[in-house]
Amino acid sequence: MSARIVVDRDKCEGLGMCEAMASDYFELDDDETMHVLQEEVPDADRAHVHSATQACPVLALTLAG
Ligand code: SF4
Questions:
Q1: Going by DSSP bridges, is the β-strand pair 40-42/2-7 parallel, antiparallel, or unpaired?
Q2: Residue 43: what pLDDT?
Q3: Looking at ligand 1, which atom is closest to the CA of residue 7?
């Protein structure tokens, strides 16, 4: 089983909390546009990525599945 990262682009403000929490999955570019480096999250990383999604101040991140 794996989960998938879903981003609500209308909400994301490029604040970077997700990158600070899980830089292996989230990266901000020079324009503060956030890129998901890896959408599929294996079970081993699930808790780690879940914490990062919870850290988003504008609730733009969901972990589906
Ligand atoms: S923490 Fe939320 S607002 Fe900030 S870059 Fe990540 S998804 Fe976007």
A1: antiparallel
A2: 96
A3: 7
Task: Please give the domain boundaries of the chain with CATH numbers for all domains.
Answer: 2-64 (3.30.70.20)
Cβ–Cβ under 8 Å, residues 7 and 34: yes
Give the neighbor-by-neighbor strand order of the sheet with 40-42.
40-42, 2-7, 61-64
Contacts of residues 34-39 at CB distance under 8 Å and 24 or more positions apart, as own/partner, are: 34/7, 36/5, 36/7, 38/5, 39/4, 39/5
Please give the pLDDT value at position 48.
96
pLDDT per residue over 35-50, tens digit each?
Answer: 999 999 999 999 999 9
pLDDT of 1 reads: 80
* Minimum CA distance residue for ligand 1 atom 3: 12
Distance 3 CA to ligand 1 centre (A): 18
